[in-house]
TrEMBL record:
<dbReference type="Pfam" id="PF16868">
    <property type="entry name" value="NMT1_3"/>
</dbReference>
<protein>
    <submittedName>
        <fullName>Uncharacterized protein</fullName>
    </submittedName>
</protein>
<keyword id="KW-0732">Signal</keyword>
<dbReference type="InterPro" id="IPR011852">
    <property type="entry name" value="TRAP_TAXI"/>
</dbReference>
<feature type="signal peptide">
    <location>
        <begin position="1"/>
        <end position="22"/>
    </location>
</feature>
Amino acid sequence: MRLSTVGASALAAMSVMGGAHAQDISIVTGSEAGVYFVVGNTVADIVNSHSTDLNVTSSTSGGSIANIESLRVGEADFGVAQSDWQFHAINGSARFEGNGFDDLRAVFSVHGEPFTLLARADSGIETFDDLRGKRVNLGNPGSGQRGTAEVLLDAYGWAATDFALAAELTGDEQGPALCAGELDAIFFVAGHPNNSIHEGTAFCDSQLVPVQGPEVAALIAANPFYTDAIVPRGYYASGNQIDTPSFGVRATFVTSATQPDDVVYEIVRTVFENFDAFRYAHPAFELLDPQSMATDGLSAPLHPGAARYYREQGWISES
């Protein structure tokens, strides 16, 4: 349970200054099948191993949008969110229209996340256009996966009613459902390799499907948080012999403006001073560049505690 703002601020100042009691800090992530779960657990493990001032716990959640809402209402201290939903939350657009989160603050970005489409080999799905009339998992409400899927469907002029089934399964549930023959295709916005996609390729005959075309190109051109992306070849048992083109976002680590500067500084300092432990926690992290993580994919203002560390390293300017 999170402390009140006044209590948290006082205790943070005391603990970081060497007080006797460590402050409890919570991180919300995503499903156990996703890389967000690894991000949160790895940050918690590193900080708990190298700092006596903070006691960090990480938990599963509904995903990006749910995590941002948890920060807004004070149910969590930090969270992981797609860069597009960070943008929309701070700008009051898309799902956050009329309900922006002005106090959202960026801490650092993490791995790239291609929009990933996996289809059963017997489904007849070779392109995104082939999905019409099929049984598809759009993702659970509150997840970035679901939000981005809805944005893409809107770009195509489609709705959930264009599918024979528009399921709302979590990342943990969708791979087994695909292999059980309950679905023809699943979406996932995730770093790779990913457990959900692994389950869907290792236990049934399936293939990764390109997500490209004029609709996708228009989305990339109109939105600074989208980029061309690929699902790299060789990660999965089947249907992954060549790079699969798509578009994507970045995973970002976020907090709120109410989080004390010293707490954010301590987490950022500890993670980056023990960066090898972070880098080797998952293959999606292996090519991460610490300096780029301080700027890339961040639409919300940097939290002052994070900015302080980045200025000390010369990664951002003093202004």
